[in-house]
Amino acid sequence: TGVGLGLYISKAYVEAMGGQMWVESRLNQGSSFFFTLPSAQANAGLRERPSRRARNGASAADASKLAILKDKHVVIVDDEPQVVRTLQLNLEASGIHVQAASSGQECLTLVQQSKPDAIVMDVVMPGMSGLEVLYELQHDPATREIPVILISARSQEEDVATGMAAGAKAYVGKPFSAIQIRDLLADILERESVATARA
Fold it and tell me: Global pTM?
């Protein structure tokens, strides 16, 4: 089985080329994935090979990307204490302020009190599932803009599609590495920052 990153990586490539990617799902009928890309004519001036650009500026770009995490506030939600501890230690090492919740209801309470910059949340939890929490967050004007990364042992294509259609910014299958989550947070918060600056 995959780790649930295929859609996220595809979306990142499409957006890096100036396009957009989205999903349309219908219950019991399946999901369709779409993307648009600018025409080759519109990009005629971009002759430099991406690999050379990436090589020349990789370390500076990585440092800049991780710098955006400093002093950010992230809520981690998982009923598995080991997952929470591992993520918390690694994210705090990058300068992130972390609050932990072990249930969906606890997450909603924390979010209302502290308005975090992002949430990393398990899908399968007793009581409220991660998808139910995400629904509540998406339908509250005060919290709908908070980016959410869903994590789950359920990472089949339909699980990923359901999570992304519900409003998640990314869906990562377990097992995963803390560095993977950290880098996703950096990418998402960087994009959110750019979007806010343009608005």
Answer: 0.69
